Amino acid sequence: MSALYVHIPFCQSRCIYCGFFSTTQMELRQRYVEALCQELTLRNDYLGDEPVHTIYVGGGTPSTLSFSQLSMLFSHLRTFTNDFEQVGEFTVECNPDDVTDELASFLFQSGVNRVSMGAQTFSDKRLRFLCRRHQAADIAAAMERLRRAGINNISIDLMYGFPDETLSEWHADVDAAIRLHPQHLSAYALQYEEGTPLTRMLEQGQVVEIDEELSRQMYYDLKDRLNAAGYEHYEISNFARPGYRSRHNSSYWQQVPYLGLGAGAHSYDSKSRQWNISDLEQYIQGIFSGHPFVEQEQLDADTQYNELVMTRLRTAEGLPLSLLAPLHRQYCLEQARRYINDNLLMMTSGHHLCLTRQGIFVSDMVMADLMRAT
């Protein structure tokens, strides 16, 4: 099986924390969609004979495209998959205030069966701080419209660790999310990415980063509250009701081949990684000239081992030692020993190496120490 990702970089306005490739050049939307369709033609053999089981249209804000632009894109995606009936999960990201009855019905009729929304917070004050377009009330309204249209698999994103945010305020956000009964929830600590307005505010002393211990407690409380509400914690930042794990994101963590379309999108065929240029006009120019601007990295044995550590340790199931070559298995166990002793890693009876509750919060450090220099 394989996966297909489509990057839609357009946003009506930029959020102050966003480090992803995005643009407010809305006038380029039509030309960009045409380039996406052309890229599908240029790369129709990238996945070989592997059937596409998941499609994810992310951004940016895909819901800023017009119905005609989405129709054009979806039509080409259907043709590319050969057998659309095999696509078990078709996700589109939407901004809550973009979800009208018309959009919800259009997505359902187009075969979309999962929607992911960036709620971020249920505080209008913090939404304004982030420069988000929507208000808290728009989240519930959007979910109601989607369900009424027939889309019953909805994921929402939450963010924690805002400057001056209290534990009780975070509890209120989590509880508000639970009351809406999303099938899936992703939660991320507010990050200060290089070059973003938020980071400049931090450097200029306009905001103060939250205390690490408070951030840790917010994460633990998130996990406990969601577990009590019936959600399984299946990946560091992701929670799902039984049967509703993100199949598409899970494919990344399980080294399933995938094709990434659009400016800045990455692809993986198990032997190499390839990524498109993160420049809108150069991406479009390269596609229509028949010579896309791409970079590629061949994956040697050490790099493949490092990717297994980085992806599998993120999941609840952990890293199966059976996937490792003898040399890498020995190296991994030697590096892991001290973290097992410190209760940051544990070995299951099935010989899977897993992060503990304490280890999850320092996962970047643990995974970095288990990797080999390349």
List the helices and strands and how they pair.
Blueprint: E1 2-8, H1 29-42, E2 52-59, H2 67-81, E3 89-94, H3 101-109, E4 114-120, H4 124-130, H5 136-149, E5 154-160, H6 167-179, E6 184-189, H7 197-203, H8 212-228, E7 232-235, E8 238-240, H9 247-253, E9 258-261, E10 266-268, E11 272-276, H10 280-289, E12 294-298, H11 301-312, E13 319-320, H12 326-341, E14 345-347, E15 352-355, H13 357-361, H14 363-370
Parallel strand pairs: 1-2, 1-9, 2-3, 3-4, 4-5, 5-6
Antiparallel strand pairs: 6-8, 7-8, 10-11, 11-12, 13-15, 14-15
Helix pairs in contact: 1-2, 1-10, 3-5, 6-8
What is the N-to-C order of secondary-structure elements (H for helix, E for strand)? EHEHEHEHHEHEHHEEHEEEHEHEHEEHH
Number of separate helices: 14
Total domain count: 2
Radius of gyration over all CA atoms, rounded: 21 Å
Taken from the alpha-carbon principal axes, the silhouette is globular
Structural class: alpha/beta
**Helix residue percentage:** 40-55%
Strand content: 15-25%
Return the CATH architecture of the largest domain.
Answer: Alpha-Beta Barrel
CATH superfamily of the largest domain: Aldolase class I
DSSP E strands, number: 15
Report the end-to-end length measured between terminal Cα atoms.
29 Å
Biggest sheet, strands in spatial order? 7-8-6-5-4-3-2-1-9
- CATH topology (fold) name of the largest domain: TIM Barrel
Largest sheet: 9 strands, mixed
> In CATH, what is the class of the largest domain?
Alpha Beta
